[in-house]
Design brief:
Length: 402
Amino acid sequence: MIGVAVLGSTGSVGESTLDVLARHPQRFRLVAIAAHSNAARLAAQIRAFRPPYAALADAGAVAELRRLLGTEARGTRILAGAEALEELVALAEVQCVMAAIVGAAGLRSTLAAARAGKRLLLANKESLVMAGPLLVAAVNESGATLLPIDSEHNAIFQCLPRGARTGVAPAGLRRILLTASGGPFRDTPCEALASVTPAAACAHPNWVMGRKISVDSATLMNKGLELIEACLLFGVTPAQVEILVHPQSLVHSLVEYVDGSVLAQLGAPDMRTPIAHALAWPERIESGVEFLDLLKAGRLDFRAPDTDKFRCLALAQAAARAGGLHPVLLNAANEVAVQAFLEGQLNFPGIAAVIEAVVQRGTGGAPGGLEEVLAADAEGRVRARERILGMTRNAPMQGVRA
Ligand code: NDP
């Protein structure tokens, strides 16, 4: 039995993970689940899975969790606060950690799992974008195994030779072809983007995901973060990663080798495939995912992304090339701008405008330790909020919702 901790269990990836685990009760034991403040959902998961540990990072929500569970809380130790998550991943009963918290909030627990030498199933791409070199070094020093959960990176991993080390490009690899659905506004004219709503941005054509990553997919920032993620995970340069818009989301990514071979991984757009792959690797287990019918799919299209229309992708590509602390500033500004968009304080093109203002004023600097990363993250957030405030004060101005 493999002991599993699922961080971000109440989210989209978290729930898909619990679905796969429930299909294999003889193989996996759910030891711990954790979320931020969704006490109702966590209570339901505790009732269904009876894990020995559960945690809420928002300590203020724990009383509600206890109230909801009543006597059913017996048998589950409930922990409170962000530090509790680091405790959970270090438990001896936990061999495998699903890092599925959204955003920078997942950094410390993801790093803790890497340092503790666990099998780390990495969905929380933001932690890699912020502290990639630290995270990769922690994995290689502790002997942890990092398995990517992002469907694209999981696909690339599946197309690499066995034994490839995290952060080191295998011999003979020429390029990575990273696919993108193009998001809900793929065919929306540029002029119409200023009036798109958060609901429309979250309505992804192929994937069901949390709100933050859905907006990231709509701006193509998600692909930009994934470009940075690919460089760190597979030891390639940004120039070795080509982004291809592939509207069907069936080819999850491809790897090109120097002999002209191109290997791809295909499948239905359902996160349970990469989750099951990473949970069982190097074996294969059933995931509940519908099998791919290529005759029904009919065609596979590919085209170049429009970086004039989707400025966030161009900004992320520049941050990937600049390296250092640029990706940290980019990520921080993006998280703040996306939240402002979701709350109606910023229009869709305003997201890129805020990020651009923050990264332009960025000092960059060399990637340092965790404290430097966290300081740059805090700085990026302050600058982004200042920028949004400036835009609001000067409304009606580009970037502010009418
Ligand atoms: P969701 O928004 O659906 O879920 C986020 C999860 O993180 C929830 O469990 C939430 O808890 C928890 N959380 C949020 N803030 C904190 C915090 N401060 N401390 C502890 N827990 C917190 O996100 P997704 O599942 O869509 O995405 C999760 C990660 O996986 C992201 O990094 C995303 O980029 C990545 N990913 C997602 C994919 C997808 O298909 N959804 C695909 C590939 C990658 P609560 O419910 O209590 O707020």
